[in-house]
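Observation: inputs received (chain + zinc ion).
Thought: call the complex predictor directly.
Action: predict_structure
Action Input:
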Amino acid sequence: MSDETRTCDARATLIVTLTPAGTATNVARERIGLRCGLPAGHAGAHVDAERAEQWEAPRDSRPTLLRHEDD
Ligand SMILES: [Zn+2]
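Observation:
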């Protein structure tokens, strides 16, 4: 059996926030599901190449990541 074709498949949720002009409140603009596409058992951070995001977390957790965007 070969594991070469298996991917890590760790999941995370990325929430993109922004601060509308004239307010001091962060609002969620976008909620994106991430999935690690690296080979199963890889070392280091998980990477979703499609979204150009990476995160570090135990494989079985499903963390929520926040990214703030300013216009
Ligand atoms: Zn991974």
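Thought: report the result.
Final Answer: Residues 11-68 form one domain. DSSP finds no helices and five strands in the chain.
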